[in-house]
Amino acid sequence: MADDGGLGKFQRRMQAIPKAAREAVRPALVKQAEQMAATMRAITPKDTGDLAGSIAVTGPGEATPAYSQPGGSMMVGENQAAVTVGNSDVRYAHLVEYGTTKNEAKPFFWPAVRLHRAKAAAAIKRAVAKAVRETGR
């Protein structure tokens, strides 16, 4: 067999990275989404508790709950995790978040997203980098 100078090994490593990264990043995605959802539940107005109870985390490849905000039921992508608010009984999350002409806004969703965005991105990048390093071994 002819020596390819390591090209074959390099090509096999590059082909293995996407699969390994997807598998390795899945726990990090869900963990960061759970932390974001916990913050949302903590700062949600506690009138009845229904709104906080409707906050759900959907992992990669799963469907979000029907009637959830933003966007209703949809399939979450392979490299995504979604935090949604609302269900068939709680369909007013956007009214609480942004307010109405008669009620002031009580934001809970976007403040939690802004609070966790940088930390979540860093944790996910670390998980991908670790997967890439370990794939080469």
Report on this model:
The chain is mainly α and 137 residues long. The protein has one domain. Helix content is 54%, strand content 4%. It has 4 helices and 2 strands, in the order H-H-E-E-H-H. The chain has helices at residues 7-43, 50-53, 93-98, 109-135, and strands at 56-58, 82-84. Strands 1-2 form a two-stranded antiparallel sheet. Helix 1 (7-43) packs antiparallel against helix 4 (109-135). The longest helix has 37 residues, at 7-43. The radius of gyration is 20 Å and the shape is elongated. The mean pLDDT is 87.
What does this entry show, briefly?
With 137 residues, this protein is mostly helical.
Approximate strand percentage: under 5%
Rg, rounded, reads 20 Å
Helix-strand makeup class:
mainly alpha
Strand order of the largest sheet: 1-2
What's the number of domains?
A: 1
Number of helices: 4
List keywords for this structure.
137 residues, mainly alpha, 2 strands, 54% helix, elongated
Write the layout of secondary structure elements.
Blueprint: H1 7-43, H2 50-53, E1 56-58, E2 82-84, H3 93-98, H4 109-135
Helix pairs in contact: 1-4
